[in-house]
Design brief:
Elements lengths: L3 H5 L8 E2 L6 E2 L4 E12 L3 E14 H13 L7 E2 L2
Parallel strand pairs: 4-5
Antiparallel strand pairs: 1-2, 3-4
């Protein structure tokens, strides 16, 4: 499998993984390794983030979209990390 972004630029580069958001194959140059906190809902609809974060591989386009979303819609004040 080859990187979708490299393919768009008429290059063939082996992919190292798949974007967990859009499913595009990505090479090491176009991949972004980020963290994601898994959450669960506790009584009284309180959202709790579970420590430790999991790894998440994203393409650059999805990483940028998530950054814009985070600036627009910051995490809820009710989200709490468990010890």
């Amino acid at each position: 499998m080859n990187c979708l972004d490299c393919y768009s630029a008429a290059r063939q580069t082996p992919a190292i993984g798949v974007c967990q958001q859009c499913g595009a194959a990505v090479c090491s140059q176009h991949a972004e390794l980020t963290e994601q906190f898994l959450t669960c809902t506790k009584p009284v609809y309180r959202t709790v983030a579970v420590d430790k974060p999991v790894r998440r591989l994203l393409c650059r386009a999805c990483t940028k979209a998530h950054q814009v979303y985070a600036e627009c819609c910051p995490q809820s004040a009710n989200t709490v990390r468990t010890p």
